[in-house]
Amino acid sequence: MQLKILGLNYKTAPLEIREKFSLDKESIRRGLENLEDYDELEEAVILSTCNRTEIYAVTSTNFSTSVKNFINDLIGGGVENFLYEYEGENCVRHLFKVASSLDSLIIGEGQILSQVKEAYTTAKSAGATGTVLNTLFNKAIAVGKIVRTETKIAYSSVSVSSAAVELAAKKLGELKNRRALIFGAGKMAQLTAQHLKARNIGKIFIANRHYSRAVEMAGKFSAEAVTWDEALLKADNVDIIITSTGAPHYVVKAWQTQQLMARRQGREIFFIDIAVPRDVDPEVAKINGVTLYNIDDLESVVESHVKFRQEEAKAAQKIVDANVSAIMERFKYLKFRPLMADLSQRAEKIRVRELRRIANKLPNLSEEERKNIEQMTKMIVRKLLRLPMMKLSSSIGTEDEKFFAEAMRALLLD
Q1: I want to staple 163 with a disulfide (CB 3.0 to 4.6 A). Which of 29, 94, 219, 301 is the partner?
Q2: Domain count across the chain
Q3: Residues 117 and 173 in one domain
Q4: pLDDT at residue number 210
Q5: Is the pTM of this model over 0.85?
Q6: Cα 327 from Cα 6, distance rounded (Å)
């Protein structure tokens, strides 16, 4: 059994690379349902967010070939220079840090834990997980919860949406008399509206491809819903446009923005694009009067919040390390569990068969005598297996591991 991860994130790949390889839920599900096409791949979970795309895999042998083939089939080639690989304990530590938001662009943000849960649930429902990844991801989710409850890492935490609003306030000053247009009605868009309301924004417009969802969201935040087609017309009098849709293509194009700026007669406007893939064509940034920020530009906002959470991150890291050690100890025995189970089942079969034989020869045994013989045979089997099991367990992780496993199988099972 090999436990490994292959992935890219905001540290290794720029936004223009990440957005090309961002995967939607349906693509992930289809890929995982075809996992059996890859001989060495036994289990897999795919985590794809705005800041990372990672595959966690359990393989029998040739990890690099099987997983790279899988990921290339899923998202295409061209990512080799941006990928990182972790194995064994380093893989476990990485996942625990991800689930605890220690590996996030914004340390302490809460969305990543629910994204890890969703990735695991999707893989499990697709039949792509087994004992190893079920154990690993359940533990990772538990560790993420412990970190959030036992440290203050999430205290006054900054999310992508709150950082976007903070950036707007930093550039425009007080938002009280400002007007904002939000593209999207998903969770991120709703959080953005919530943070704008907290800053006493003057007016919010909501645009979504499904107008009914825009209306529903507008009702929650005392905003005004606008149809998708008329959204940029409403932008004639807004100061900020924040985009957060799941569209696979640009929803704000350069030519549309050029027309918008002509109507505005050059009055300045701020675009903050927090979607991956991006919603706003990068060419928009070249238009006079337009200032465009994307998700990677939020790092400057995040830095002002880092110092406090760095201290809490040290406490969180101790929780992660302790749980890594515990699960690695558990994984040591996981690989030999089938062999140990085979040994126990073989011995139990022999015990039950011989007990039946002696019972036929001694029909006058009392119920108590039968129970005593049953208990005695169980203890004999347990004591006979104790030494082989101990030898097998103590060899795990040593150069004798393979020898003892093969010897045990040859002597007691074949």
Answers
A1: 301
A2: 2
A3: no
A4: 95
A5: no
A6: 20
